[in-house]
Amino acid sequence: MNHISRRSFLRAAGLTGTALFVGLYFPLNAEEAKVTTTDAAEATGFEFNAWIRIDTDGKVTLTDHRAEMGQGSYQSVPQIIAEELEVNLKDINVIFAQGNPTKFGSQITGGSSTVRGSYKNLLKLSATAREMLITAAANQWNVPANECYAESGYVIHKPSGKKLNYGELVTEASKLPAPQEVKLKEISQYKLIRKPLPRMDTPLKTNGEAIFGLDKKLPGMLYASVERNPRLRGKVKSFDDSAALKVPGVKQVFKVQMFVFNTTRDGVAVVADSTWAAMQGRKALHVEWDDSGFEHVNTSDIYKAHEELLKKEEGLFFKKQGEPSQILAKAGKKIDVIYQTPYQMHAAMEPLNCVAHYQNDKIEIWGPIQAPDWVQGDISDKFKVPKEKVIVNMTFLGGGFGRKAFLDYTQEAVAISKQIGAPVQVVWTREDDITQGPYRAGISYRGEGSIENGEISALKFKMAGQNIDHWNNDKRDKANDSTTEGFLKPYFDSVKNISFADVPYEMPLPNMWWRSVYASTNGFAYESFINEMAVLAGQDQLDFRRKYLKDERCQQLINRIEEVSDWKNKKKNEGYGVAITECFESTVGHVVKVSRKADGKVKIDHVWAVMDCGWYVNPDIIKAQVEGSILMALGAATIHEITFKDGLVEQKNFYDYLMPRMSDMPPVEVHIMENTADAGGVGEPGLPPFAPALTDAIYDLTGKRIRKLPFNLNTV
């Protein structure tokens, strides 16, 4: 690793004077990070990440290595640190880290990984800094350290009541070795963690202080809007820019390309002195496209192909135990059904945007970026610039859901900046966002199952749909790595004959992660099928699951679901449905209650959600994330989808890719399981159970089984 001097570190961080820096470094071949300080890192030659800095005025600065896109890391991470550091949250300043995987490891904000991936290190770092400050105070007073304690940014001597502010101690504390073992608090001792504290970013987002990508301005910056080929793989045949160049403010018009996985997307960039001028110039542009030599797909053809594959092909086994095919061939009481889920776009309220400045000695980027480390590596590779010369700055994100972890929009901005020799801000329109993709892939599933003596004798699932992995590697001879995502692992312990297979399906449509990834589609199919199996067995859906999910945490979750929803006391003319899924180390169960309105239409009366995410930080953030997940799942299940005709996306904006309205949102009640298990994810696991619970509730009310999404709630 590169040696970093204290002076260089302070200069790079824009700091002067003495401060206590506490961070992590990874010794060669070490599995766990070690705690260190600036001086110790300098002495050993290790580069480390300065997560926590305490200045001589007592101000604590936290470097947040992950993006804040509404999921709450800007609050959760400081809340963790303030707990063990024993400081007030108001005394913590949060800054976003630049992309640097050497220092910060993975910086991808995805997979609900921010808290679950770093909370143990953050607790240890904070406790380490606290103990160093206590030792510094004890040395100054010449008293035993065990006579001192920390509270609200002070070290206090218990017998005498003397106290020193952290700022008065950082100079001496910074000279001490970092203790490698510190005692952490028990959950019962927490003062801040597990408390519903208000979010620190809320005032910033309401008073205009929060800096989003569109807020970034640079001296001499120009603005660009790009007319991109509406069909992936199409090329620019020719373009006429004469009218565009007559628009006041338009400076240049030229062809630009960006990589989308293993292919390129052609476009024509219009550069101007304002976003408005660039967009008006783009409207005046005339482009002729060459869309020959590749398939122009239709949505109906995609699902017909899925169905044929599921009927004819066994697929690539992802997991198999026992002999489900043999059992099913002999079974008398069985079902064989197909479920289908649609293509979806991410629909973040903030469309894509990026500021890039290509210079001779470096490339610098600013924007709403979910994966600064990935962007750094991609730009370094594409433009043949050393990684350390690629500076990626994160701003706040107005939503992401996986889309802003992709690399196309940052690469395109750098290419335009390089062409014009100036910094540029590239802004995507809502139409660009919706029509360009990449999308969550539409997937079809075949479920076969049999019941003997009231018990599951066999389960067999096959999925057919685009595989994200196939864009970037050669895994085409292997099953989708996420074939069982969303399906609870305890089923494999209790069902003797069970198999999951992936039937490969290739399609030249860009597909990628979407909130909860494959669990969002798998969950609908697998949990809907479990509900159908319960009906086939003539058993209550919750009792049916209780027999097969024998894991203690699952049993407790089921009991809680039954309790909060009053499941056993369902009334006439009401439909109740349930589903339980697992993803990113968290298990979530939903119960949905529906009834008929006076006009005969189905309405959703209530949703109960129970989340087991293990160790957690802020219950209000969890509730907000689950509520947001349910709203997003409601839209995906009943309102919107992306469809294709002749290779073109048919939806353009929110007038034809409709979003749920406030009046569509049912009352939601969120309950959190209390335990000491390791932290699971929060931002995504609340989405997958909703659709199968809703369709189960509709079946309970109407007797109609829904197996294809989206469906119209008003016509059920």
TrEMBL record:
<dbReference type="InterPro" id="IPR037165">
    <property type="entry name" value="AldOxase/xan_DH_Mopterin-bd_sf"/>
</dbReference>
<protein>
    <submittedName>
        <fullName>Molybdopterin cofactor-binding domain-containing protein</fullName>
    </submittedName>
</protein>
<dbReference type="Pfam" id="PF02738">
    <property type="entry name" value="MoCoBD_1"/>
</dbReference>
<feature type="domain" description="Aldehyde oxidase/xanthine dehydrogenase a/b hammerhead">
    <location>
        <begin position="207"/>
        <end position="293"/>
    </location>
</feature>
<dbReference type="InterPro" id="IPR000674">
    <property type="entry name" value="Ald_Oxase/Xan_DH_a/b"/>
</dbReference>
<dbReference type="Pfam" id="PF20256">
    <property type="entry name" value="MoCoBD_2"/>
</dbReference>
<dbReference type="InterPro" id="IPR006311">
    <property type="entry name" value="TAT_signal"/>
</dbReference>
<dbReference type="InterPro" id="IPR012368">
    <property type="entry name" value="OxRdtase_Mopterin-bd_su_IorB"/>
</dbReference>
<dbReference type="InterPro" id="IPR052516">
    <property type="entry name" value="N-heterocyclic_Hydroxylase"/>
</dbReference>
<dbReference type="InterPro" id="IPR046867">
    <property type="entry name" value="AldOxase/xan_DH_MoCoBD2"/>
</dbReference>
<dbReference type="InterPro" id="IPR008274">
    <property type="entry name" value="AldOxase/xan_DH_MoCoBD1"/>
</dbReference>
<dbReference type="InterPro" id="IPR019546">
    <property type="entry name" value="TAT_signal_bac_arc"/>
</dbReference>
